[in-house]
Automatic annotation (TrEMBL):
Alphabetized InterPro entries for the sequence: Ser/Thr_Dehydratase (IPR050147), Thr_synthase-like (IPR004450), TrpB-like_PALP (IPR001926), TrpB-like_PALP_sf (IPR036052)
Lyase found in the keyword field: yes
Annotated CDD domains: Thr-synth_1 (cd01563)
Family membership: Belongs to the threonine synthase family.
UniProt xrefs under Gene3D superfamilies: 3.40.50.1100
Gene Ontology biological-process entries: isoleucine biosynthetic process; L-serine catabolic process; L-threonine catabolic process; threonine biosynthetic process
UniProt keyword terms in alphabetical order: Lyase, Pyridoxal phosphate
Residues with PTM N6-(pyridoxal phosphate)lysine: 106
Name of the protein this chain belongs to: Threonine synthase
Amino acid sequence: MKNYTRSLRCINCGKISSLKPIYSCEMCGGVLEVTYDYKKFKKDHETIYNISLANKSSLLPIDINEEEPFPYFNTPLIKAKGIGLDVGTNNLYFKLEFNTLTGSFKDRPVYVGIKKAKEFGYQKVIVASSGNGASAVAAYATREGLESIVLVPATTPAAKVSQAYAYGAKVIKVEGPYSNAFNLAWQISQEEDVYNITTTFLNPYTIEGDKVVAYELIQNLKGNSPDYVVVPIGAGPLLVGIYNGFYENTLINEKQKIPHMIGVQSMGCNPIVKAFNEGKQHVTPEKSPDTIAGGIGDGLVGYSQDGTYTLNTIKDSEGIALEVSDKEIMHAKNLLASREGLYVETSSAASVAALIKHAKTHPFSSTSNIVIILTGHGLKESFGKNIEEEVPVISNNVEALKLLLKK
């Protein structure tokens, strides 16, 4: 299958690098993005809508088997039955990103990351995750014959830990917030022969998998883009990836539009929302996250530039950043189950809570097409074998991690 990938480019200084296993700009340390030859793609394909998902995968940085072009995805888009009335629109949709191999949206970026790991010749991969990324990396690494190491916060729900453990990963809990696990994974990937697939903006390839959500939405909506897309965010790669997919669509067909992107955080961990509301150009880390929505409880300590990237993307789309309380999130989670028959994980419900809250003071048009991204299944938090005694917990120290990995 023809591939249109060109290079890596730094979003800060613009330095161009070859498609190699690096995690940041070698000149300024900035976030990297993959570039493509859109002119050639446009010459071969008039629109994104009129081509198959198999051919859309040629706008990914991996070589894909034509018989299994981008497996396990093309998740359902369903129309709301009751909650649309609370929002004030007749066209509220849910994108069921939990309808994947491991039950969350992380399958998309991880699939791309695992393929790159194999391409680069790695035998071992590592991920820092609040839970969903851990499960996805463990599953896809197993399918590709790679070893996997997952670092999760010590507070990660047992169901998410047991899922990664069942897939054969070496699971390690790290004391403190998610940022500690993130920084340890970064350190070990610099010192050992292990490929880091942490799905923030650290790995420049993984976010490309998130673009396919936009491609599918365009196809679901018969060639049109929605007016708004609502996404729960920690660092925000899912939101940025979806935006990038819609942006690519405008490069191929200038008549298309980019939706207003709405990013949602919990009040207990809201560095991006704070920066947005205060009109700041850069995001300040949140050192002490305090929220039940662990999947989006990312304080961005040590990598706040990721949050700034997401902040700028929201602004570029003329979107907004919203915050909700844990109480509002839990109410929305119960509402989804009782009125829509959708049982989602806590972080996933934040988007619904924010949209309902925002609509009370800023009504949407009754004709607005709004898509809420539901990122994970509720069963991932509720059940699972209790393996607390089997999973080691370490302090936030790279030497402790090295010692454990040698056992």
